[in-house]
Design brief:
About 40% of the residues lie in helices and about 20% in strands. By secondary structure, the chain is of the alpha/beta class. The strands form two sheets. Strands 8, 9, 10, 11, 12, 13, 14, 15 and 16 form a nine-stranded mixed beta sheet that branches. A seven-stranded mixed beta sheet has the order 3-2-1-4-5-6-7, sandwiched between helices. Helix 12 packs parallel to helix 13 and helix 14 packs across helix 18. The chain is elongated.
Length: about 500
């Protein structure tokens, strides 16, 4: 039986169905409806004269076959008769297939149907546009969309009568007033009423709150939340607990975005009912005004969407942290009791990223670089080069506890790789007087995962030769060798950054 008809059967049976047929497959759908659903009225609209005649002939066969439930009213319409036909408003279900005219589907929203159930080719019809047109007056929307190759997505949405917010975006604020107007203006350019912007004043000593209040006077979607200072994790968690959206996003308010970023993310998430949607990001250099795209996992299969557990697990190890360039299903977060660890003063996005990725059932990437991450700003976490980097060890203690019951061994392997990458990052930055203690703690951390041989096998399988060498040195606590290794690495990184900057200048014609 057709998927659309199966969905219709699972609903509280509507009294009236409008079936719009754009291809021969629609005749089979009509047959399935009359076998599985008992209706008072079925109206079949054929989009061509050829289809009308085929449906008319099939109607005669159906009326003489006892396996079908024949509705009291069984009406066939040509396309030119549609505008003059009267439909019920209380309990109408619209089904369509084979339609290639978006304006025609959008016009159906005037019927205020209780259900919209459809199937279309995304080369002709935009799923998100249809959802936007119908969401106000339709209780349930179920749309199958496809683009060649047999790959299909399913939008499965039900109206929340008490809450119309689809997306909540959370902004933790502390001492970033200088950058806040640019952030607010880029995120609020998307004019839609189903988004809320939650600005959390984390006891900031500057005038962040006053700036937000000023913008809120002009935009009711902007909401100011205030709390005592507790750090970024506590501010994000405070916003998360108050967010109404079906999806949740995070923005660091010293950053900014392409104005259509969240529309594109939400469109992709809803189009296939994906639990995570993310895009690429650019590093924006405050001191030069230049930006550079950051390589990441944006290609196949992520750009087409995947529910393959193995491919999603790969993101634990290979996708950059950067939680602020994505949106996350609230159901995913609540179902797995995921939260921000409020005692962490920095890098709280690392555990959140790994936890949501390890539990996600589906993800999709928008292969565009839509978020601008501001670099070279005083006070950033990424500028830490002292004992503040020891925060990685309580982070991994939390993650070890979260992942200890993981039935998927791959997830534990990827977490092990993340630890090696994170310790490399820290040791490349940390001052010499803190590196010995960091190495000691890192040794204890990675020894808690696997024995030496098994740990080598995991890193050799998933990482690079440099990762393997660092793992060996960390495992045995050879901190002097580590410093020499990373000193050479640091020198190479500086040279690469200089080359990268020259390329940017050349590209901009400077």
């Amino acid at each position: 039986m057709d998927d659309m008809v199966l969905y219709l059967e699972l609903q509280k049976l509507p009294k009236e169905v409008l079936l719009i047929i754009g291809s021969e497959h629609g005749i089979k759908i009509m047959q399935d409806i009359l076998i599985g659903v008992c209706l008072e009225k079925l109206t079949v609209l054929s989009l061509s004269e050829h289809l009308f005649k085929a449906v008319e002939k099939e109607k005669e066969n159906i009326e003489n076959d006892s396996q079908y439930y024949i509705p009291r009213q069984f009406i066939l319409l040509r396309k030119n008769e549609f505008d003059d036909h009267k439909f019920g408003q209380e309990d109408l279900a619209i089904l369509y297939e084979g339609v290639k005219n978006q304006e025609f589907v959008e016009k159906l929203s005037k019927l205020s149907a209780k259900y919209l159930i459809g199937m279309h080719d995304r080369n002709y019809i935009n799923t998100f546009d249809i959802w936007e047109k119908f969401r106000e007056n339709t209780k349930k929307i179920y749309i199958i969309s496809y683009v060649g190759g047999g790959k299909k997505d399913v939008l499965n949405w039900e109206k929340n009568e008490e809450n119309s917010i689809e997306l909540s975006i959370i902004f933790p604020m502390y001492n970033i007033a200088k950058y806040l107007p640019q952030c607010i203006e880029t995120v609020t350019k998307w004019q839609t009423d189903f988004v809320e912007f939650l600005f959390v004043d984390d006891g900031s000593p500057d005038n962040c709150a006053d700036i937000v209040k000023k913008y809120a006077q002009r935009d009711s979607r902007i909401k100011l939340l205030s709390k005592k200072n507790g750090g970024c994790a506590s501010a994000r968690q405070y916003g998360l607990e108050r967010a109404k959206g079906r999806y949740i996003g995070f923005v660091d308010p010293d950053d900014f975005i392409q104005p259509d970023m969240y529309r594109k993310l939400l469109a992709k998430a809803l189009e296939g009912t994906y639990e995570i949607a993310y895009c690429g990001y650019q590093e924006y250099y405050e001191n030069t005004g230049l930006s550079a795209e950051v390589p990441d996992a944006l290609s196949y299969p992520y750009n087409e969407g995947t529910s393959d557990p193995a491919k999603i697990d790969e993101l634990i190890g290979y996708q950059r942290v950067a939680i602020w360039r994505g949106i996350y299903s609230k159901d995913l977060i609540q179902r797995n009791k995921i939260h921000f660890y409020t005692d962490l003063k920095r890098f709280d996005d690392l555990p959140f990223k790994i936890e949501v990725t390890s539990k996600a059932r589906s993800v999709i990437a928008v292969p565009e670089y839509l978020y601008y991450y501001r670099m070279s700003r005083p006070g950033q976490d990424v500028s830490a080069d002292d004992e503040r980097l020891y925060v990685h060890f309580p982070i991994f203690e939390y993650l070890d506890k979260f992942m200890k019951n993981a039935s998927n061994r791959n997830q534990l392997d990827y977490l092990h790789l993340v630890k090696v990458h994170t310790h490399r990052y820290a040791l490349e930055k940390i001052k010499r007087e803190f590196s010995k203690e960091y190495c000691r703690k890192a040794k204890r951390d990675i020894k808690g995962d696997f024995g030496f041989i098994e740990g080598m096998y995991v890193i050799n399988k998933l990482g690079s030769k440099q990762d393997l060498l660092l793992f060996i040195l960390l495992y045995w606590g050879w901190d002097r060798a580590i410093r020499k290794l990373l000193h050479r690495k640091e020198k190479a990184l500086k040279e690469n950054k200089a080359i990268k900057k020259l390329k940017l200048l050349n590209n901009k014609g400077i």
